Amino acid sequence: MTITIHSSFLPHLDPDASLAFYRDVLGFEVRNDVGYEGMRWITVGPAEQPDTAIVLHPPGVGPGMTDDDRKALLEIIAKGSYFGANLAATDLDETFARLEAAGAEVVQEPVDQPYGLRDCAFRDPAGNLIRIQQVA
Questions:
Q1: CA–CA dist 113, 9 (Å, integer)
Q2: pTM for this structure?
Q3: 70, exposed or middle or buried, with CB in 10 Å at 0-12, 13-18, 19+?
């Protein structure tokens, strides 16, 4: 049996701002952009990994979600403490410089972590934490 990662989901608060970040700042390709009842689900991913994607979705949509649940979820997202993704780059310093120059919100400059990784961190327009790790 083989199990692989196909897609992960991150909430967006402004689909156009999130699209600009993932497409124009990170350089991901847009694989799908679906609208339904005034909402949008946008699937993006690196061109070099056609079988792996991030789906940017409207938060608080789904069966069983109450108004109180939706309100609490939006408050957590607004604080930037809801979710995130770990990405990897072959040249972390160059990637950091490019994203910083593009206006991405810096959370952490490149640093050697005590657990053996070198990484940096940004926030996307919805406040999701995007960590980028150096790969050999």
A1: 26
A2: 0.91
A3: middle
